[in-house]
Structures are given as C-alpha cells and as structure tokens.
Amino acid sequence: MSLTARPPTVPLVIAPKALASLIEADKSDSKKLRILDATWFMPNTNPPRNAFEEFKAGPRLPKAQFWNVDKVATVGESVRNLPHMMPTPATFAEAAGEHGIEPDTHVVVYDTHGVFSAPRTAFTFKAFGHLNVSVLNGGLPAWINHGLPTESGEPTSASKTTYPEPALQDGIIRSFDEMVANARMGARGQTVFDARSKGRFDGTDPEPRPGLSSGHIPHSVSLPFPSLLKTETGKDGKQYTVLKDQIELWRTLSDTVGGTEALDKLRQASSGGELAATNTCGSGMTAAAIWLALQEIGVQSSIYDESWMGWASREGEGVPIDKNV
C-alpha cells in the first residue's frame, strides 16, 4: 500500500500552552482554528456517563464544539452494526461543515480523559486528507492543570461552512478480508499492533462486550495503549494521561517489535510512502492511540476499523482466534 501525503503544517501533538497562544492569535480570524471535544466513554462505564451532556455542562475549552464519534460514522448492516466506524466522505464533509471547519482550518481535538478518544477523531481527519490536525496532549485535565481558562453553560454555535467532499486515503482503513490475507502470510505479513489489554489479547481475561471470545488475530502483536502514555496528577489530585515523549515511545515500540532494527525497518518503509503497520483494538477507538504514537516516531500506519468486535464476531464462521494460554 502506498500513502501520498503532503507534510503537515502543524504539530500532530500540541501542548496546552502552545494551544493557548494559538487561541489568542486566532481572535482576529475565527475560521483559522476549531477546537473539538471528542470525548467518548466505554459503553460499560459504571456509572454510565454521557459525553455530550458533560460537554454542555462544562468545563470545556473556550469556544469548543462537540464531535460525536458515534454519530459522525457509518452505521447499519453494511458495517455489521459496529460502533463509530469510519464515516463516508459525504458524512464527514457534512459534519465538518456543521462545525465551521474548512479544508485549511487548524483542528485541535481533545478529550476529558487526557489522551484516550481524541486520537480517533484526529485519525479520521487525517484519513480524509485534512492536514492541519492536532491532539491536545493531556486533554482537558492538562489544560485545567496549567491554569488556562475554561467555559461552561450553553456552548457557542459555529458558523456553518461548506466542506468539499474529500477522498479517503488509499489503504488507511483495512478491511476484514485484508486482515485475513495478512494473517495467512504469517511472519511475512505486515506488523499488526493490538491496543487491548494483555489479558484480553492472551485470551485469559474476558472481553467487555458480551458474546465475544477473547484472544487475538494470528501473528498480531500485543501493544496495550496505556504503555504509550504517562499518568500525570493534577493540582486537584485527579489523574490523567499524556502521550510519552518521542524517546520513551521509541523505547516502548522498539521493545514491542523486537529491537531497534525491526523498528527502523518500519520507519524506512514509511519514509518510502508505505503504510508500514496496522493497528487494531476492541472497536477501532484506542487503535488510534497507537497510530498517534507511531506517527510521532515516523511510522505511517492504518487501522483495522472493525477491530476485535468485527473479527471475533465471525468466530462461528471459522475465523481463527489465537490465545496464549
């Protein structure tokens, strides 16, 4: 697979104070910057939490808008009724326009966990060729911890724009059939990273979604997404996550793939325009955290959008599931 992309003009990961400076500079032209809250909670969160209701109540970043990852998505039988599947170009363009976004707008995405669901929305924009996308490192908690201003109450509505319908980058979303073919190649296949916990990957812990066996796609590699993050403690005593720096990411990923030489091969393939790895998780959400980390060290990658929900739901059809038990 090849990937043709122009170099980005903004950092993929942005620090709170850097974003605060951009917000100040953007006051003269409000179309240059859009801030999106892309918070998402696991469906089994106890007690249940509603990301949109929490966004409306605040606190949130100034002039932020809510990006609903489950609504800006392809739904229905064509995607096996799986959640937050990659939207069609038309659905994406409509949502971007409703949020006042234009093709050259700098979109900054955050979530209320720190770094959890925001990378998925950043990946979606990148997948449709939107270059100027950043993830706020540490999200809303880091923003608050730096003493930066927030707002609450009724959110500000954006002036709608017309976003031209984009094309999805070739190969950026891997299909089930492609994953089957890759698994059959064994060690010769493309590297596949799995963001779920080691217990779920090994098949020793149950899946959080009823009816699915745990285990993993044959020849995939376990890379629990929290291993790419650091936990910070805010002034209020609450903990949140930030992405590790590039040196720490290099060490973690090098250990995962079996050394610096193996990781260098992925970087070299990426420098030649190839999508050198594929990321998967439970439902396609935290796979984007791996995508983000790989991007930071120069490795281009794709996402198996159906992820484990799609793979394991076919177990009755004879789809292989490996376990380390």
Automatic annotation (TrEMBL):
Query: GO CC terms for this protein?
Result: mitochondrion
List the InterPro entries: Rhodanese-like_dom, Rhodanese-like_dom_sf, TST/MPST-like
Gene Ontology molecular function, alphabetical: thiosulfate-cyanide sulfurtransferase activity
Pfam families per record: Rhodanese
Q: Where is the composition biased (Basic and acidic residues)?
A: 197-208
User: In what residue span(s) does the Rhodanese domain sit?
Assistant: 29-152, 186-320
Where is the region Disordered?
197-217
Which keywords does this chain's UniProt record carry?
Pyruvate, Repeat, Transferase
Q: Does the UniProt entry include the keyword Cytoplasm? A: no
Q: Does the keyword Transferase apply?
A: yes
Protein's name according to its UniProt entry: Mercaptopyruvate sulfurtransferase
Species this protein is from: Kalmanozyma brasiliensis (strain GHG001) (Yeast)
